[in-house]
Design brief:
Number of strands: 8
Strand content: 5-15%
Helix content: 40-55%
Strand order of the largest sheet: 3-2-1-4-5-6-7-8
Bound molecules: nicotinamide-adenine-dinucleotide
CATH class of the largest domain: Mainly Alpha
Number of domains: 2
Radius of gyration: 22 Å
CATH topology of the largest domain: N-(1-d-carboxylethyl)-l-norvaline Dehydrogenase, domain 2
Order of helices and strands: EHEHHEEHEHEEHEHHHHHHHHHHH
Distance between the termini: 37 Å
Largest sheet: 8 strands, mixed
């Protein structure tokens, strides 16, 4: 596949529109399909605004903006996908709806077309199973907003053909994205490994150790994260973030490591969704003050280290279970969610024995399976090895 390959995109929402922009910018003809003409119109005018801003900032020329927009055909006629070499699905996150859509797609596209899903949490194998040729199906998981976030997780299902996988990854690499290979397991890499960033922060709050702004301050100022967990949950939306946590938790057969929090559930139920509703953990109304954090460094470092060791434990366990390589695990967290360092690299710097001891302390203190140390940490300490040796 190269830039002469026609790309089909199913769903003109936030993700579909962003992926269409990326593909058109890389020089492809793009067919963007949605059942709702309203969504198509909105997508088109949003792109026009984005392009105008890029021209204004002199990032692209007028002619480029014109050419990029001209390469995207907006349609509510699924037959327009005929002739596409790669189709990327970005419709609602429902297995039934996606399965129906894939069965439909196979009827209109040629035998050589590759079919990809942008699902964040569903099983790629289940989606592929809806097709007559499941070997041409894989996950290509972009992050939001797709034109700005460099990471793309490439997720082969058990059915995916090797040549299909290779060709798809190569194409997305050529779009200038950073691709990582992830196993078809709940949350793939980022949405699995990042769970403690939210979950452990919520738990620390629930135990009364620190309030929202203190935890956010510690993670930002002492840890170097761009946003604190509560700021980030307010940004993502508590409804959306809660739903991902709940779906990862049930998909992992209720492993307590991924247990959702009542604090977040109640905030979502109350309509305290975050920025988009004007109130979340913080108040976003005009003139509202952000509560001052407690900047006691002893508390701050205790908060940071507890969340950090839980994140490292998760990354180490993903490595242990061969969800991804150490390179891809560290790349995914720095390029997908802007972590200041890869978690395995961070573990080396802190000392893997220090991380393991802290996990064992937590496990001893709480007696909960949530805090069980990954066998990978024990193995590394026993062998006196670093992840990046
Ligand atoms: N929003 C994110 O942060 C994000 C990030 C990564 C992946 N994803 C995944 O990407 C997918 C899309 O998410 P989104 O946020 O863009 O959703 P969205 O709600 O913004 O857009 C979905 C679009 O799909 C259309 N649609 C629904 N059913 C359809 C069908 N059968 N045929 C054609 N069009 C249909 C809707 O009209 C809508 O325009 C989901 O699987 C989601 O989990 C989302």
């Amino acid at each position: 596949m190269d830039s002469s390959t026609k790309i089909g995109i199913l769903g003109a929402g936030a993700m579909g529109s962003g992926i269409a922009q990326v593909a058109a910018t890389a020089g492809h003809q793009v067919v963007l399909f949605d059942t709702q003409t309203g969504a198509l119109n909105q997508s088109k005018s949003k792109l026009a605004n984005i392009m105008a801003r890029l021209v204004e900032k002199k990032r692209i020329t007028d002619a480029e903006s014109y050419a990029i927009q001209g390469r995207i055909a907006y349609t509510d006629n699924i037959e327009a996908f005929a002739g596409c070499g790669l189709l990327i699905e970005a419709i609602v996150e429902s297995l039934d709806i996606k399965k129906k859509a894939f069965a439909e797609l196979e009827k209109v596209c040629g035998n050589q077309a590759i079919l990809a899903t942008n699902t964040s949490s569903l099983s790629v194998a289940s989606i592929a199973a809806a097709c007559r040729h499941p070997e041409r199906v894989l996950g290509i998981h972009f992050f939001n907003p797709a034109p700005l976030m460099p990471l793309v997780e490439i997720v082969p299902a058990v059915q995916t053909g090797k040549a299909i996988l290779r060709a798809s990854r190569e194409l997305i690499d050529n779009w200038g994205k950073v691709t990582v290979l992830a196993k078809d397991t709940p949350g793939f890499i980022v949405n699995r490994v990042a769970r403690p960033f939210y979950g452990e922060a919520l738990r620390i709050y629930e135990e009364g150790i620190a309030d929202f702004s203190t935890i956010d301050w510690a993670m930002r100022e002492l840890g170097g994260f761009r946003m604190g967990p509560f700021q980030l949950m307010d940004f993502i939306g508590n409804d959306v973030n809660y739903k991902v946590t709940e779906s990862v938790f049930s998909a992992f057969y209720y492993d307590p490591r991924y247990k959702p929090s009542f604090t977040q559930k109640r905030h979502a139920e109350a309509g305290y969704l975050g920025r988009k509703s004007g109130r979340g953990y913080y108040d976003y109304s005009e003139g509202a003050m952000v509560p001052a954090p407690n900047t006691d460094e002893a508390i701050g470092y205790a908060v940071l280290h507890r969340i950090l060791v839980m994140l490292i434990n998760e990354a180490a366990d993903a490595l242990y279970l061969n969800i991804a390589t150490r390179e891809d695990l560290d790349l995914a967290m720095t390029k997908g969610v802007n972590y200041p360092k890869g978690l395995l690299k961070w573990a080396d710097e802190l000392g893997i024995d220090v991380v393991l001891n802290r996990m064992e302390d937590l496990y001893g203190e709480y007696g909960e399976d949530r805090y069980r140390p990954s066998p990978m940490l024990r193995r590394m300490v026993r062998r006196n090895k670093k992840f990046w040796d």
